[in-house]
Amino acid sequence: MMNLAPSILAADFCELGKQIDIVEKAGVSCLHVDIMDGVFVPSISFGMPVLKCLKKRSKLFMDVHMMVDRPERYVEELIKLGADGVTIHVEACGCVSDTLAIIQDHGVRAGIALNPETPVREIIPYIDMVDLILVMTVHPGFGGQSYLTGSIDRIKMVRDMINGQKRDIRLEIDGGIYLNNLKMNLEAGADVIVAGSAVFEGDIEKNIKRFMELLI
Ligand code: DX5
Ligand code: ZN
Q1: Sign of CA pseudo-dihedral 162, 135, 175, 170
Q2: Does residue 175's CB lie within 6 angstroms of at least one atom of ligand 1?
Q3: How far apart, in whole angstroms, are the C-alpha atoms of residue 148 and residue 137?
Q4: What is the pLDDT of residue 16?
Q5: Is there a catalytic annotation at residue 131?
Q6: Which of 7, 38, 55, 203 has the fewest other C-beta atoms within 10 Å?
Q7: Ligand 1 in reach of 34 Cβ (< 6 A)
Q8: Which of 126, 119, 92, 113 is nearest to 192 (CA)?
Q9: Using the 8-state DSSP alphabet, how is residue 202 labeled?
Q10: Rounded to an integer, what distance in angstroms lies between the CA atom of residue 105 and that of residue 84?
Q11: Quick check: helix, strand or coil at residue 31?
Q12: Residue 11 in contact with ligand 1 by CB distance below 6 A
């Protein structure tokens, strides 16, 4: 199964509730929530109060992407506020396996993310503890960047890794994904597609419809 996960980083925050309603009505099941701390990445996005409001507003699966240094400090609070999946960066965490264990112990989906320059092999020690692997296809920190073409080989490598496992592990990609490069990423093995600008710029409903047609 393929999923579209619209990233609200590209939403109009003055219209956030209405835009989330449109996304949900359009048949999307998952929302990508980018939390940035200004340390792990240069920019700051939003945090707990926004997640809390989103959760009240919709039934969408909250896919929280923590671009945060030492995320272990916050995972429990995020889960309490409604995160259904929490993804931490392998580069950001002093104790990756302890943090993944906390996430799994709370019964939510545990994800591990890889920056573009991080060797794919760095996730091998954690593969038994994750439900999702996020391959960054831009340098994290900002929406609207161009897709890094070297990502395709990395996606294929992760796909091979996942196929060698018995567990059901999803392969998420994030950054610079548009309708015109979607197909090659799906062919490489991605099955959860994050899209910010491509969903929220222009007509949200139409954008989602076009994505969904290619994801079937
Ligand atoms: C980037 C974030 C992404 C971002 C994607 O650091 O993790 O989720 O919102 O935005 P687009 O799709 O515009 O590249
Ligand atoms: Zn993200």
Answers
A1: positive
A2: yes
A3: 6
A4: 98
A5: no
A6: 203
A7: yes
A8: 113
A9: S
A10: 13
A11: strand
A12: no
For residue 86, give Cα distances in angstroms to 64, 71, 83, 214. Answer: 5, 10, 6, 26
Residue 43 CA, ligand 2 centroid: distance in Å? 13
Q: Which residue out of 21, 174, 191, 203 is catalytically annotated?
A: 174
Q: pLDDT below 50 — which residues of the chain?
A: none
Three-state SS for 120? helix
Only one residue has tokens 């009505």, namely 25
| N residues, the chain | 216
- Report which secondary-structure segment, H or E, holds 21: helix 16-25
Nearest one of 108, 155, 101, 106 to 133, comparing CA atoms: 155
CA neighbor of 5 nearest in space, from 17, 24, 15: 24
User: Which class for 50: exposed (0-12), middle (13-18), buried (19 or more C-beta within 10 A)?
Assistant: middle
d(CA 152, CA 32): 21
Does residue 174 carry a catalytic annotation?
A: yes
The span from the CA of 106 to the CA of 151, in Å, is 32
Q: How far apart are CA 49 and CA 133, in angstroms?
A: 26
Q: How far is the CA of 163 from the centre of ligand 2 (A)?
A: 24
> Which residue has the CA at smallest separation from atom 6 of ligand 1?
140
